[in-house]
Structures are given as structure tokens and as C-alpha cells.
Amino acid sequence: MLNDILLYALCVLVPGASGYLISYRFHRSHYARTDRSGDFGAARGSFLMVMSGALIGALLLNIAHRFGLVSPDAGATAFMLALGVGAIGGVIGLFRGTSGPPSN
Fold this sequence. Notes:
The protein is an all-alpha fold. The chain has helices at 2-28, 30-34, 46-50, 52-66, 72-98.
């Protein structure tokens, strides 16, 4: 039970923090402010940066599952948790990164 709780805590911290930081730094860049040729007038690559936390969480859980570190039941819940929190972290980074002047 304690292993599952630690796994869920890691699945909140790692994808959420990485998704936020990657998305925030991308949307604060000069490139994201000037290149608006992506979908709906967003910067090219913006969707990938927003979803980066979810992708990192999925990759880490896949590696942990392949080495037998995660039980299938806990892994399924942790996978859904990592995808959701990673995407939410990326969206928060998007909104915080697009407000204010760009960084150099």
C-alpha cells in the first residue's frame, strides 16, 4: 500500500512539474512570441510543449512497468493520474507563460 502511495505521489510531482516548466519556458521564449504559424494562431510546437508532462509521465511509467517495479493495478491508476496532471501542468504553464513580456 505504501508503494502505491509513493508511486501516485511521484506521478503527480514528476509529470506536473516537468509539464509546467517545459511549457512555461517555451511560451516565455522569443520564438513562441514571434512565430504564430501553428494551429489557431499559436506558436508552432505549442501543443507538444503543453503535453510534454503527460508524455514524460507515460514514458517513465512504461519504463517502470517493463522492469517490474509497478503492479498492473497501481500502474493503470498511476498512468491516468500522470497523463491528467501532466496535461494540467502544461496548460497552467501555457497561461502563465503567455502573460507578461517575453524573456530573452
